[in-house]
């Protein structure tokens, strides 16, 4: 169905209904038909938004708005508001007549509703404000909750205690949760409530006020982790808990007294005994933080027992495919155990633990290979690598190039030129990392390398990432003519940006001509994303030493697209310094 200026609105569409409210409140200003069927307007909301609409007869051909919602949805309440305004303007019965609504469109002041509220709040009578709070709170639950949280926060700040912060967090959770059976909590809204507390904890840490910081940290960890994980609608509140564990790590690593750290460790051990975080998403992070609080060997030995129990629980009894989540958790606990053993100077035990687990975990295999290379046990290292390269099971998680890079490292140590060239180019072909290419190049004299490169380019052209590989080869070998030909064959604005710095010194005229052509293609698209892209590439031209071309393009667009305020806004923001 084609939408027209007459049928775009629907009572079931909440976006258009919000747009109607904006229109009826006089939020649409500067409505103008700049060319036949092309309308521009300004809409005042939380900030000022520019809207463009193109009509063909009465059909809606194109809409555009610079609000964040429009970019992801291609419609918004600001566009709907302007469509209502256009419909009223184009259905006027008498030519030259002026309605009260028209006057409102022209006379609306630039000041936004929020700015007006700020001005009025500065001069309002205290009694009037109190009366308003009572009356408005009686019919608006969200306002009541927000006001209670704000006043409670002020009270807690005046006399900080752990229980006070817990009460404040409970209030925030209650304010952002419904009363259904599942107690659904709005994660984003709860995170907004709690952000001032997180910021305050961070500030207290920076000022070395560790006691009050721990009041906030403990309260956040305990109250948030007590919530059912399926009550969250996102991961922002999760992130706050993880950040609080980071804060505890920072305290453990600080110059705070040993007794304070000891108290933190006992606090953590208390939660370990109660299994507070077991079987939750915070379990591993909690135990990692607890290790940071273990400041002497007695505590480390005690902590080692806990980790051994965790590893035993996760260690498979029988061979076969093991679920990835179990392997992942087990690996984390193994790494914790290795850290403890190394802190206890039990390095042989740590190494044996690594070797015993190379078949279960790639990370353990990599650690064993690193140790073998450092100890010059090259045959053992190669066996570990080649066993993995031959492994085609589901546990083959790290890419082939990762293990080949280890073989390259050994070949370099053993000065095996042929292997270094083969492996260096092989890993480069897989990863497009130029460092591997340069390692191979250093092994051969120029004439021999020239033959090698010619053969290798044929392989690179057949690769799935041929453009990236060829760009790096041509640049490294100064084959700029070939690079320019590649660009012309695969031309687009993004490749042009990637290639331009290398090509500009020798092929300035050709590169700038290609830039103009590609930007002109973008300019034909009346979208904010295109305008943003144009601005970005104009600033790139300036950065690579072509400001005169950028100025020329801007001057041309100011004339050609003078009736596109959104584009003009982006051009105004182009920085030449």
Give a quick precis of the structure.
The protein has 577 residues and is mainly alpha-helical. It has 29 helices and four strands.
Task: Walk me through what this model shows.
This protein has 577 residues and is mainly α. It folds into four domains: 14-115, no CATH class; 139-295; 300-374, no CATH class; 497-572, no CATH class. Helix content is 67%, strand content 5%. It has a four-stranded antiparallel sheet. α9 packs parallel to α11 and α27 runs parallel beside α29. The protein starts with 13 loop residues before the first helix and ends in a 5-residue tail after the last helix. Residues 103-110 and 229-233 have low confidence and may be disordered.
Which structural traits does this protein have?
577 residues, 4 domains, four-stranded antiparallel sheet, 5% strand
- Mean pLDDT figure: 86
SS element count, helices: 29
Q: Segments where pLDDT lies below 50 for 5+ residues?
A: 103-110, 229-233
In the sheet with the most strands, the strands line up as: 1-2-3-4
Coarse structural class? mainly alpha
Radius of gyration: 33 Å
| Strand residues, percent | 5-15%
Question: Helicity level, as a percent range?
Answer: 55-70%
Largest sheet: 4 strands, antiparallel
Classify the oligomer: single chain
Count of separate structural domains:
4
